[in-house]
Amino acid sequence: MSTVFNKEIERAIGWLYDTQNMENFGWSWVADISPNVQNTSEVVYALSLFPDRLTKENIEYLNEAVEYWLLYPSIHAFITVDWVWVIIALLEYLKNWERFNPPELSSVEANYRDYRRLHMNKIDAAIKYCVDKILQNQNDDGGWADYRGDNSTVARTSLVIYAFSLLTDSEKTEESRQRAVSWLLGLQNDDGGWGNIRAGSLRQNQFSGNRDIKLRTIDEQFLSSAAATGYAMLALSSEDKFRYRPELMRAELCLSKLMHADGRYDIFYEIGIKRESVFTFRHFGTAWAVISLLRLNDYSVVSKQIIDSVKYILCLQDNVSGGFRCSEGSDVYTWSTCNALMVLRRVSDAIGELTALDYIDILVDYIKSNNGMPRDGGEA
What we know:
CATH class of the largest domain: Mainly Alpha
CATH architecture of the largest domain: Alpha/alpha barrel
Distance between the termini: 39 Å
Number of strands: 2
Structural class: mainly alpha
Radius of gyration: 21 Å
Strand content: under 5%
Largest sheet: 2 strands, antiparallel
Protein backbone atom coordinates (compact mmCIF):
# COMPACT_ATOMS: atom_id res chain seq x y z
CA MET A 1 0.00 0.00 0.00
CA SER A 2 1.16 3.53 -0.72
CA THR A 3 2.58 5.47 2.22
CA VAL A 4 0.54 8.52 1.26
CA PHE A 5 -1.75 9.75 4.07
CA ASN A 6 0.28 8.02 6.80
CA LYS A 7 -0.15 10.87 9.26
CA GLU A 8 -3.87 11.25 8.60
CA ILE A 9 -4.50 7.52 8.90
CA GLU A 10 -2.55 7.10 12.12
CA ARG A 11 -4.32 10.02 13.80
CA ALA A 12 -7.74 8.73 12.74
CA ILE A 13 -6.96 5.23 14.04
CA GLY A 14 -5.75 6.76 17.30
CA TRP A 15 -9.01 8.65 17.71
CA LEU A 16 -11.07 5.53 17.08
CA TYR A 17 -9.25 3.73 19.88
CA ASP A 18 -9.69 6.76 22.13
CA THR A 19 -13.46 6.40 21.70
CA GLN A 20 -13.62 2.64 22.29
CA ASN A 21 -15.64 1.55 25.31
CA MET A 22 -13.20 -0.27 27.58
CA GLU A 23 -15.95 -2.12 29.42
CA ASN A 24 -17.26 -4.07 26.43
CA PHE A 25 -14.81 -2.97 23.68
CA GLY A 26 -17.55 -1.66 21.40
CA TRP A 27 -18.12 1.63 19.63
CA SER A 28 -20.99 4.04 19.22
CA TRP A 29 -21.04 7.04 16.87
CA VAL A 30 -19.30 9.13 19.56
CA ALA A 31 -17.65 8.41 22.88
CA ASP A 32 -19.62 8.02 26.12
CA ILE A 33 -22.72 6.60 24.43
CA SER A 34 -23.64 2.93 24.72
CA PRO A 35 -21.96 0.99 21.89
CA ASN A 36 -23.94 -0.86 19.23
CA VAL A 37 -23.11 -3.57 16.75
CA GLN A 38 -23.41 -1.43 13.61
CA ASN A 39 -20.88 1.18 14.70
CA THR A 40 -18.63 -1.50 16.18
CA SER A 41 -18.70 -3.44 12.91
CA GLU A 42 -17.91 -0.33 10.88
CA VAL A 43 -14.88 0.39 13.07
CA VAL A 44 -13.70 -3.23 12.97
CA TYR A 45 -13.94 -3.11 9.19
CA ALA A 46 -12.06 0.20 8.92
CA LEU A 47 -9.29 -0.94 11.29
CA SER A 48 -8.97 -4.25 9.44
CA LEU A 49 -8.11 -2.28 6.30
CA PHE A 50 -4.85 -1.20 7.98
CA PRO A 51 -3.38 -4.25 9.73
CA ASP A 52 0.17 -2.93 9.36
CA ARG A 53 -0.76 0.30 11.19
CA LEU A 54 -2.04 -1.44 14.35
CA THR A 55 0.06 -1.98 17.45
CA LYS A 56 -0.05 -5.19 19.46
CA GLU A 57 -2.32 -3.46 21.96
CA ASN A 58 -4.55 -2.18 19.14
CA ILE A 59 -4.93 -5.73 17.85
CA GLU A 60 -5.81 -7.06 21.31
CA TYR A 61 -8.62 -4.51 21.62
CA LEU A 62 -9.78 -5.22 18.07
CA ASN A 63 -9.97 -8.94 18.84
CA GLU A 64 -11.97 -8.21 21.98
CA ALA A 65 -14.47 -6.17 19.92
CA VAL A 66 -14.85 -9.02 17.42
CA GLU A 67 -15.20 -11.62 20.16
CA TYR A 68 -17.82 -9.71 22.16
CA TRP A 69 -19.88 -8.02 19.42
CA LEU A 70 -19.50 -9.65 16.01
CA LEU A 71 -19.38 -13.35 16.86
CA TYR A 72 -22.80 -13.26 18.53
CA PRO A 73 -25.14 -11.44 16.13
CA SER A 74 -28.13 -13.27 17.60
CA ILE A 75 -27.55 -11.20 20.75
CA HIS A 76 -26.45 -7.83 19.35
CA ALA A 77 -27.82 -7.53 15.78
CA PHE A 78 -31.49 -6.85 15.11
CA ILE A 79 -31.94 -5.14 11.74
CA THR A 80 -30.60 -5.32 8.19
CA VAL A 81 -27.97 -2.62 8.62
CA ASP A 82 -26.60 -4.53 11.65
CA TRP A 83 -26.38 -7.89 9.90
CA VAL A 84 -24.84 -6.50 6.73
CA TRP A 85 -22.08 -4.63 8.53
CA VAL A 86 -21.26 -7.69 10.64
CA ILE A 87 -20.74 -9.65 7.41
CA ILE A 88 -18.60 -6.96 5.78
CA ALA A 89 -16.49 -6.50 8.91
CA LEU A 90 -15.90 -10.20 9.58
CA LEU A 91 -14.90 -10.90 5.97
CA GLU A 92 -12.30 -8.11 6.05
CA TYR A 93 -11.09 -9.20 9.49
CA LEU A 94 -10.68 -12.75 8.17
CA LYS A 95 -8.20 -11.57 5.54
CA ASN A 96 -5.77 -10.75 8.35
CA TRP A 97 -6.72 -13.45 10.84
CA GLU A 98 -3.20 -14.85 11.25
CA ARG A 99 -1.80 -11.36 11.81
CA PHE A 100 -4.48 -10.54 14.36
CA ASN A 101 -4.17 -13.96 16.08
CA PRO A 102 -0.48 -14.93 15.89
CA PRO A 103 0.77 -18.36 17.03
CA GLU A 104 2.37 -16.89 20.18
CA LEU A 105 -1.15 -16.75 21.63
CA SER A 106 -0.47 -20.37 22.47
CA SER A 107 2.87 -21.95 23.32
CA VAL A 108 1.64 -25.30 22.07
CA GLU A 109 1.05 -25.67 18.31
CA ALA A 110 -1.82 -28.10 18.75
CA ASN A 111 -3.61 -25.66 21.03
CA TYR A 112 -3.20 -22.94 18.44
CA ARG A 113 -4.68 -25.17 15.72
CA ASP A 114 -7.64 -25.95 17.95
CA TYR A 115 -8.09 -22.26 18.76
CA ARG A 116 -7.97 -21.35 15.07
CA ARG A 117 -10.51 -24.03 14.14
CA LEU A 118 -12.93 -23.04 16.90
CA HIS A 119 -12.59 -19.35 16.13
CA MET A 120 -13.11 -19.90 12.41
CA ASN A 121 -16.21 -21.94 13.16
CA LYS A 122 -17.58 -19.07 15.25
CA ILE A 123 -16.93 -16.60 12.44
CA ASP A 124 -18.52 -18.85 9.85
CA ALA A 125 -21.55 -19.36 12.07
CA ALA A 126 -21.92 -15.61 12.65
CA ILE A 127 -21.76 -14.87 8.92
CA LYS A 128 -24.24 -17.65 8.13
CA TYR A 129 -26.64 -16.35 10.78
CA CYS A 130 -26.52 -12.83 9.31
CA VAL A 131 -26.98 -14.10 5.75
CA ASP A 132 -30.01 -16.15 6.78
CA LYS A 133 -31.56 -13.21 8.64
CA ILE A 134 -31.04 -10.88 5.68
CA LEU A 135 -32.59 -13.39 3.27
CA GLN A 136 -35.61 -13.73 5.55
CA ASN A 137 -35.85 -9.93 5.75
CA GLN A 138 -36.05 -9.27 2.00
CA ASN A 139 -39.18 -7.40 0.94
CA ASP A 140 -41.51 -8.75 -1.74
CA ASP A 141 -40.32 -6.01 -4.16
CA GLY A 142 -36.75 -7.37 -3.96
CA GLY A 143 -35.29 -4.59 -1.84
CA TRP A 144 -34.45 -4.30 1.82
CA ALA A 145 -35.37 -2.01 4.65
CA ASP A 146 -34.16 -2.49 8.18
CA TYR A 147 -37.40 -4.35 8.95
CA ARG A 148 -39.31 -6.51 6.52
CA GLY A 149 -42.38 -4.63 5.32
CA ASP A 150 -40.92 -1.14 5.70
CA ASN A 151 -40.04 0.87 2.58
CA SER A 152 -37.12 -0.68 0.70
CA THR A 153 -34.17 1.70 0.46
CA VAL A 154 -31.25 2.01 -1.93
CA ALA A 155 -28.83 2.35 1.00
CA ARG A 156 -29.80 -0.94 2.65
CA THR A 157 -30.36 -2.87 -0.57
CA SER A 158 -27.05 -1.80 -2.09
CA LEU A 159 -25.03 -2.72 0.99
CA VAL A 160 -26.69 -6.14 1.06
CA ILE A 161 -25.82 -6.73 -2.60
CA TYR A 162 -22.25 -5.65 -1.93
CA ALA A 163 -21.91 -7.84 1.17
CA PHE A 164 -23.35 -10.86 -0.65
CA SER A 165 -20.88 -10.32 -3.50
CA LEU A 166 -18.04 -10.86 -1.02
CA LEU A 167 -19.26 -14.31 0.02
CA THR A 168 -17.69 -17.44 -1.42
CA ASP A 169 -21.03 -19.25 -1.33
CA SER A 170 -22.74 -17.08 -3.96
CA GLU A 171 -25.23 -19.76 -5.02
CA LYS A 172 -27.18 -19.42 -1.78
CA THR A 173 -27.79 -15.71 -2.35
CA GLU A 174 -27.92 -15.58 -6.16
CA GLU A 175 -31.70 -15.51 -6.61
CA SER A 176 -32.06 -12.95 -3.83
CA ARG A 177 -29.32 -10.74 -5.34
CA GLN A 178 -30.89 -10.79 -8.78
CA ARG A 179 -34.24 -9.67 -7.39
CA ALA A 180 -32.47 -6.90 -5.50
CA VAL A 181 -30.52 -5.77 -8.58
CA SER A 182 -33.76 -5.65 -10.60
CA TRP A 183 -35.35 -3.50 -7.91
CA LEU A 184 -32.30 -1.24 -7.83
CA LEU A 185 -32.20 -0.78 -11.60
CA GLY A 186 -35.86 0.16 -11.56
CA LEU A 187 -35.14 3.10 -9.27
CA GLN A 188 -32.47 4.79 -11.40
CA ASN A 189 -33.66 8.33 -12.10
CA ASP A 190 -33.70 10.02 -15.50
CA ASP A 191 -30.58 12.02 -14.56
CA GLY A 192 -28.66 8.76 -14.03
CA GLY A 193 -28.58 8.96 -10.26
CA TRP A 194 -30.49 7.30 -7.46
CA GLY A 195 -32.64 8.55 -4.65
CA ASN A 196 -32.98 6.41 -1.56
CA ILE A 197 -36.59 5.29 -1.99
CA ARG A 198 -39.20 4.93 -4.68
CA ALA A 199 -41.05 8.19 -5.40
CA GLY A 200 -44.25 8.44 -3.42
CA SER A 201 -43.20 5.94 -0.75
CA LEU A 202 -43.24 8.70 1.85
CA ARG A 203 -46.02 11.26 2.24
CA GLN A 204 -45.90 14.59 3.97
CA ASN A 205 -48.91 13.75 6.16
CA GLN A 206 -46.93 10.88 7.68
CA PHE A 207 -44.72 13.50 9.35
CA SER A 208 -47.44 15.99 10.29
CA GLY A 209 -46.52 15.74 13.96
CA ASN A 210 -42.83 16.47 13.36
CA ARG A 211 -42.15 20.12 12.59
CA ASP A 212 -38.48 19.41 11.78
CA ILE A 213 -39.44 17.40 8.67
CA LYS A 214 -40.02 19.74 5.72
CA LEU A 215 -41.70 19.03 2.40
CA ARG A 216 -38.40 19.46 0.54
CA THR A 217 -36.78 16.87 2.82
CA ILE A 218 -39.47 14.39 1.78
CA ASP A 219 -38.75 15.11 -1.89
CA GLU A 220 -35.02 14.66 -1.33
CA GLN A 221 -35.60 11.04 -0.34
CA PHE A 222 -36.22 10.04 -3.97
CA LEU A 223 -34.27 12.77 -5.81
CA SER A 224 -30.76 11.77 -6.87
CA SER A 225 -28.14 12.17 -4.15
CA ALA A 226 -24.43 11.40 -4.09
CA ALA A 227 -24.86 8.97 -1.20
CA ALA A 228 -27.65 6.88 -2.74
CA THR A 229 -25.98 6.99 -6.17
CA GLY A 230 -22.68 5.92 -4.64
CA TYR A 231 -24.31 3.01 -2.82
CA ALA A 232 -26.05 1.85 -6.00
CA MET A 233 -22.85 2.12 -8.05
CA LEU A 234 -20.99 0.08 -5.44
CA ALA A 235 -23.66 -2.61 -5.62
CA LEU A 236 -23.84 -2.83 -9.41
CA SER A 237 -20.07 -2.74 -9.90
CA SER A 238 -19.64 -5.50 -7.32
CA GLU A 239 -22.16 -7.63 -9.22
CA ASP A 240 -20.89 -7.03 -12.76
CA LYS A 241 -19.53 -3.62 -13.74
CA PHE A 242 -19.31 -4.64 -17.40
CA ARG A 243 -22.87 -5.88 -17.65
CA TYR A 244 -24.20 -2.72 -16.00
CA ARG A 245 -21.76 -0.35 -17.64
CA PRO A 246 -24.45 1.85 -19.32
CA GLU A 247 -26.20 2.40 -16.00
CA LEU A 248 -22.90 3.03 -14.23
CA MET A 249 -21.73 5.52 -16.85
CA ARG A 250 -24.96 7.48 -16.48
CA ALA A 251 -24.51 7.43 -12.72
CA GLU A 252 -20.92 8.65 -13.02
CA LEU A 253 -22.10 11.60 -15.10
CA CYS A 254 -24.76 12.35 -12.50
CA LEU A 255 -22.13 12.43 -9.75
CA SER A 256 -20.04 14.91 -11.73
CA LYS A 257 -23.06 17.23 -11.81
CA LEU A 258 -23.82 16.80 -8.12
CA MET A 259 -20.28 17.74 -7.03
CA HIS A 260 -19.70 21.24 -5.72
CA ALA A 261 -16.74 23.35 -6.87
CA ASP A 262 -14.73 22.50 -3.75
CA GLY A 263 -15.05 18.72 -4.31
CA ARG A 264 -17.86 18.36 -1.79
CA TYR A 265 -21.01 16.28 -2.21
CA ASP A 266 -23.98 17.01 0.00
CA ILE A 267 -24.72 15.01 3.13
CA PHE A 268 -27.85 12.95 2.59
CA TYR A 269 -30.35 13.06 5.44
CA GLU A 270 -32.34 9.85 5.23
CA ILE A 271 -35.72 9.90 6.94
CA GLY A 272 -38.35 7.23 7.16
CA ILE A 273 -40.85 5.33 9.24
CA LYS A 274 -39.79 2.29 11.23
CA ARG A 275 -42.46 0.55 13.23
CA GLU A 276 -44.51 3.78 13.20
CA SER A 277 -41.59 5.85 14.52
CA VAL A 278 -39.80 8.56 12.52
CA PHE A 279 -36.06 8.06 12.15
CA THR A 280 -33.24 10.12 10.66
CA PHE A 281 -29.91 8.82 9.42
CA ARG A 282 -27.01 10.74 7.88
CA HIS A 283 -24.91 9.51 4.97
CA PHE A 284 -21.46 10.87 4.05
CA GLY A 285 -22.12 11.68 0.38
CA THR A 286 -18.55 12.68 -0.51
CA ALA A 287 -17.07 9.47 0.85
CA TRP A 288 -19.53 7.15 -0.89
CA ALA A 289 -19.15 9.03 -4.17
CA VAL A 290 -15.35 8.60 -4.10
CA ILE A 291 -15.58 4.94 -3.02
CA SER A 292 -17.96 4.13 -5.86
CA LEU A 293 -15.94 5.98 -8.49
CA LEU A 294 -12.73 4.21 -7.49
CA ARG A 295 -14.56 0.89 -7.50
CA LEU A 296 -15.63 1.63 -11.05
CA ASN A 297 -12.15 2.57 -12.24
CA ASP A 298 -9.05 2.69 -10.05
CA TYR A 299 -7.29 5.04 -12.44
CA SER A 300 -9.91 7.72 -11.86
CA VAL A 301 -7.76 8.56 -8.83
CA VAL A 302 -5.87 10.95 -11.11
CA SER A 303 -9.02 12.81 -12.13
CA LYS A 304 -9.74 16.28 -10.84
CA GLN A 305 -13.07 15.02 -9.54
CA ILE A 306 -11.42 12.51 -7.20
CA ILE A 307 -8.52 14.78 -6.22
CA ASP A 308 -10.83 17.64 -5.25
CA SER A 309 -13.10 15.34 -3.23
CA VAL A 310 -10.18 13.75 -1.38
CA LYS A 311 -8.79 17.19 -0.56
CA TYR A 312 -12.19 18.15 0.81
CA ILE A 313 -12.36 15.02 2.99
CA LEU A 314 -8.85 15.67 4.33
CA CYS A 315 -9.95 19.15 5.39
CA LEU A 316 -12.66 17.54 7.54
CA GLN A 317 -10.12 15.88 9.85
CA ASP A 318 -10.20 17.46 13.28
CA ASN A 319 -6.88 19.13 14.10
CA VAL A 320 -7.05 18.15 17.75
CA SER A 321 -8.57 14.67 17.92
CA GLY A 322 -7.69 13.24 14.51
CA GLY A 323 -11.22 12.02 13.82
CA PHE A 324 -13.19 13.06 10.75
CA ARG A 325 -16.32 15.16 10.48
CA CYS A 326 -18.93 14.46 7.82
CA SER A 327 -19.25 18.16 6.95
CA GLU A 328 -17.91 21.51 8.06
CA GLY A 329 -19.23 22.34 11.49
CA SER A 330 -20.43 18.83 12.34
CA ASP A 331 -19.14 16.79 15.26
CA VAL A 332 -16.53 14.08 14.79
CA TYR A 333 -18.14 10.65 14.46
CA THR A 334 -16.89 7.08 14.29
CA TRP A 335 -18.91 6.38 11.13
CA SER A 336 -17.60 9.44 9.26
CA THR A 337 -14.06 8.61 10.41
CA CYS A 338 -14.49 5.04 9.14
CA ASN A 339 -15.86 6.30 5.82
CA ALA A 340 -12.86 8.63 5.47
CA LEU A 341 -10.46 5.75 6.23
CA MET A 342 -12.20 3.63 3.60
CA VAL A 343 -11.57 6.40 1.08
CA LEU A 344 -7.92 6.84 2.07
CA ARG A 345 -7.32 3.10 1.82
CA ARG A 346 -8.80 2.94 -1.67
CA VAL A 347 -6.98 6.05 -2.86
CA SER A 348 -3.69 4.75 -1.44
CA ASP A 349 -4.18 1.41 -3.20
CA ALA A 350 -4.99 3.14 -6.48
CA ILE A 351 -1.92 5.37 -6.20
CA GLY A 352 0.19 2.31 -5.47
CA GLU A 353 -1.03 0.74 -8.73
CA LEU A 354 0.07 3.69 -10.86
CA THR A 355 2.96 3.01 -13.20
CA ALA A 356 5.87 5.40 -13.74
CA LEU A 357 4.38 6.43 -17.09
CA ASP A 358 1.05 7.19 -15.42
CA TYR A 359 2.86 9.41 -12.94
CA ILE A 360 4.80 11.23 -15.68
CA ASP A 361 1.55 11.85 -17.57
CA ILE A 362 0.03 13.36 -14.44
CA LEU A 363 3.03 15.66 -13.94
CA VAL A 364 3.03 16.78 -17.55
CA ASP A 365 -0.70 17.46 -17.45
CA TYR A 366 -0.30 19.42 -14.21
CA ILE A 367 2.58 21.53 -15.56
CA LYS A 368 0.71 22.32 -18.74
CA SER A 369 -2.45 23.33 -16.91
CA ASN A 370 -0.57 25.59 -14.49
CA ASN A 371 1.46 27.27 -17.21
CA GLY A 372 -1.53 27.90 -19.42
CA MET A 373 -0.21 25.48 -22.04
CA PRO A 374 -2.62 23.48 -24.20
CA ARG A 375 -3.21 19.88 -23.17
CA ASP A 376 -4.09 18.62 -26.61
CA GLY A 377 -1.31 20.15 -28.71
CA GLY A 378 -3.54 22.95 -30.00
CA GLU A 379 -3.12 26.66 -29.64
CA ALA A 380 -3.05 28.15 -26.16
